[in-house]
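Q: Fold this one first, please.
A: Sequence and structure below.
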Amino acid sequence: MALPAMAALKTFGPFTRLGLIAAVLTVAADQASKLWLLFGFELPSRGTVHIMPFLDFVMVWNTGISYGLFPQEGTAGQWVLFAIKLAAVVLLLVWLFRAGTRLTALGLGLIVGGALGNAIDRVAYGAVADFVLFYFATATYRFNWYVFNLADVAIVAGVAGVLYESLMTPDAAKAP
């Protein structure tokens, strides 16, 4: 019985633990922020909360994927999006288990954690809870950026790290 467990451990790369820790911390921070904003701060009942001259908290329920693309109001569509996200997480975990550098493992862990954080929302609420709104405003003009959450920040940071590593490091072209 110990042999299959040992074989499974050998499939982990040298930085798998770092990536898994990043994923767990990302899910925890994302879900804690959402729970506090939804039920402690009660953001849905407050409407727009001005934080800074360029930052508001607003409650937006994203029924689609990134940037609200492919919105799905029905249960079947939501489950299809959940299944796609779950498949992506599995593929990213396989990549994480083989990651050969700290930055790749950290980036993949952030992406996985962000994806899981948003997937938890989709199961719990039927949509992803987004709440951060950056904007630029003058007396006659206002530009709103997309509304997002901490999981989205982790995903973007993780993608940036993986892209940086794959494009800018000297051995990137030689990697298998």
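Q: Good. Now the second chain.
A: Here it is, same layout.
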Amino acid sequence: MKIVETILPGCVVIEPQVHGDARGFFYESFHAEKYKSAGFDLRFVQTNVSRSARGVLRGLHYQWPNPQGKLVSVPEGEVYDVAVDIRAGSPTFGRWAAAMLTADNKRQFWIPEGFAHGFAVVSDNATFCYQCTALYDRAADAAIRWNDADIAIDWPLSAPLLSQKDTGAPFLRDVPRDKLPKYTK
């Protein structure tokens, strides 16, 4: 597998080694020892799958307390996937990184604890998989506004389909710092 660094330390794109021929393909979507030797000692406790139509934007979501790290991938379709550093005190606070995840490129995006996450569907449909390091905690569920001008994400959609939660999410500057993950070196 190949690790591609982003501008956010810790957020990386992972390109698996794909073995293919005229019959199809095979790749390991996760191998604990190989990921550990690459610096990612991950233990997943929950896996989620969602399916969305073209134009859907989900995010920017996070949990605090009880943060989740997420290894995300797209086995069907294409999404523009985004991570935002929301760790109070971080040198990259409010900055974002993105990756195109598609069924064809088979890329994964590792989003560590302390980052907000969202994605926009750019194909007719997309199936999205999340492997999470912590269980979903409704009481810790939170979001940042997808179109926060201070973050300035360059989304590939101008008028996305949003949930009520995402439409009404606060701007990052309006979230009290004690309601955000803390940066630790």
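Q: Anything worth noting on the second one?
A: DSSP finds two helices and 13 strands in the chain.
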